[in-house]
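Now for a concrete sample entry.
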Amino acid sequence: MKIIPVGGYKNAFVFGPHPLILHKLTILRDKTTNKKDCRELVHELTLFLMAEATYALEVEDVTVQTPVAECVGKRLSSKADPVIFPIWRAGDGMKDAALQMLPTANLGAIGMYRNEESKPVDYFHKPEEMPPGIVDVFILDPMLATGGSAAAAVTLIKKSSTSKLNIRFLSIFAAPQGIKCLSGEHPDITIYTCVVDEGLNDHNYIVPGCGDMGDRLYGTK
């Protein structure tokens, strides 16, 4: 897969014109796509994101016996299990795909929503107890719109840990405003997204985006 830096940012990356990603994004954007298909598409696109976001995970040598011969392979380092933080509620739609890729990961939880002034409100935070040393953290939210909730979530996670954190933020759709906000407040994290859209409308929805992802996944209005 090919990922390219988002213009002007050293820590934000978007997938190149991958045919499967473009195809799945188009179906997900369609307002007639039902919630079952939306859930499956979010799952599939998260697998692409996780494959790239886990590229730099530390590995160690391990010797195994194949049916033919002994060989030295690689396995993920046993120093510390990664931690996955879906941002409720839309981020929960990405959780199963992330755990499919990292089945031994620890799981935290953050509940965020935007109030009438589009300010982030933290209504639930269950911090995962971080082990000492360096910990890989994956924050999941399919929509990076204004970036306010994402930045607040990263701040909460940092405050709840004394460990050194390698934080990756994964989104399916991103607006330039969201990348600017999150990258500006937390230049030490890495952002991965499937697509950077045009911008935000008057209600701070991503344009063209796909509407409210939580509503699309949960069947609410």
The two ends are 35 Å apart (CA to CA).
